[in-house]
Design goal:
This protein is an alpha/beta fold. The protein contains eight helices and 19 strands. It folds into two domains: 174 residues, FAD/NAD(P)-binding domain; 129 residues, Polyamine Oxidase, Chain A, domain 2 (Alpha-Beta Complex), CATH 3.90.660. It is 25% helix and 30% strand. Strands 1, 2, 9, 10, 11, 12, 18 and 19 form an eight-stranded mixed beta sheet that branches. A seven-stranded mixed beta sheet has the order 7-6-14-15-16-13-17. Bound molecules: flavin-adenine dinucleotide. Flavin-adenine dinucleotide binds next to helix 1, helix 4, strand 13, strand 17 and helix 8.
């Protein structure tokens, strides 16, 4: 099969915020891109599910802004109604002090937190909106990468997609960016047999990245409006409790009407229970929440649980100019995501911006 008509400039694995930022910037500069994601929607861990048509954030809950570049993007999102300023601080809880409102004297109590009325996946949907339909392929899990050479002797990548029909041309491009959580990037590099072709020092840096898991429990039922929007906890079991309904357009709950709450297990609790009985783990988190905010939360009748193996990055990579992996020859291979240039949504976005810039500078 002659693949040359199908070869794109850049293949981006992952339609999270880093991958979509890369795709958007490269498209704006006239490059042909193809984004592949195993999921059925965009946004990655900035994830929203619909519970009887009501959006609920089961991944990222909010975001903060520190850099000028992300401030500019956030201002565009604010202007277009994609996000809004949810709050300037959350309640805090620890065993010694109990529940405390945000402290207006502390930095934590006066730092804007942004969220989306339609759920956090609105950020990814907005970044993806400029991509033509053929630049984004969902439900496409990349299981391998191969190198090949075109008629002019230029190297390119071929991606293997799980379950793809044998007579379908595989996605191909002159450069690839992997934007998965780093352990998944490493697994893909292994599957492609690439580690021997990579720089051992860079591989060691990737392997040193640490991710923390999160067990998320969503609760729904009739409840009164709480005095808090979100609570950050220092606790063995729980790290977060929020009133998700508070973020929605019609968030003011009807007295005793249905509301949704989100609980997050602490990294230690989530690690210990991620491979066990998730229902039993959720029971324990709900019981603990009842001890902290009141027994009413244990009475909410409906429940969903989601396990994130790679939720947050307690230990990422400090600095890596251009985020290109040194490889024995062509074609170029880049990495991006929240393990680079600072964690969280802002870090993912900034790493995407940096990789796009590096690709454009390299004239790929
Ligand atoms: C429970 C939870 C709470 C969080 N809370 C916050 C918060 O409050 N504030 C904040 O700023 N950040 C928060 N985060 C972190 C934030 O969501 C991430 O830092 C950010 O979304 C990461 O973006 P990314 O592009 O680096 O990666 P991702 O969003 O993970 O994107 C990677 C994409 O790659 C896809 N993928 C993986 N493997 C393959 C494959 N083999 N083939 C094809 N596609 C593949 C995935 O489906 C995913 O869409 C939270 C995360 C979680 C899970």
């Amino acid at each position: 099969m002659n693949l040359e008509p199908y070869i794109q400039d850049v293949l981006i694995v992952g339609a999270g915020l880093s991958g979509l930022k890369i795709a958007r910037d490269l498209r704006a500069a006239g490059r042909r891109v193809l984004v592949l994601d195993k999921a059925h929607g965009v946004g990655g861990r900035a994830a929203t599910r619909r519970w009887d048509d009501v959006p609920v954030d089961h991944g990222a809950q909010f975001f903060t802004v520190r850099s000028a570049a992300f401030r500019a993007q956030t201002n565009r999102w604010l202007a277009h109604g994609v996000c809004f300023r949810w709050t300037d601080g959350f309640h805090q809880w620890d065993e010694a002090h109990g529940l405390r409102p945000p402290d207006p004297e502390s930095k934590d109590g006066t730092h804007p937190r942004y969220a989306c009325r339609q759920g956090m996946s609105a950020l990814g949907k907005d970044l993806a909106a400029v991509l033509p339909p053929d630049a984004l392929r969902l439900a496409a899990r990349v299981t391998g990468l191969q190198r090949a050479t075109d008629a002019r002797g230029r190297g390119y990548w071929l991606a293997e997609i799980e379950g793809a029909p044998a007579d379908e041309p595989p996605p191909a491009a002159y450069a690839v960016v992997l934007t998965l959580p780093t352990p998944q990037t490493l697994a893909l590099l292994e599957a492609a047999g690439l580690p021997d072709s990579l720089d051992p020092g860079e591989l060691a840096r990737l392997r040193a990245v640490e991710y923390a898991p999160t067990l998320a429990v969503l609760l729904r039922g009739p409840a009164l409006k709480t005095a808090w929007q979100g609570i950050q906890l220092r606790d063995q079991a729980l790290s977060w409790i929020s009133a998700d309904t508070d973020k929605r357009e019609d968030g003011v709950p009807v007295e005793g009407g249905p509301q949704v709450f989100v609980l997050h297990g602490s990294p230690e609790f989530s690690r210990e229970h991620q491979d066990g009985d998730l229902t039993a783990a959720a029971d324990r988190l709900v019981a603990r929440a009842g001890e902290i905010v009141g027994g009413w939360i244990t009475q909410l009748p409906e429940r969903q649980v989601h396990r994130w193996r790679y939720a947050n990055v307690p230990r990422g990579v400090d600095r890596w100019a251009g985020l290109q992996l040194a490889l024995d020859g062509e074609p170029p291979l880049y990495v991006a995501g929240d393990a680079f240039l600072g964690a969280k949504i802002e870090g993912a976005y900034l790493s995407g911006a940096e990789v796009a810039q590096a690709i454009l500078s390299a004239r790929v």
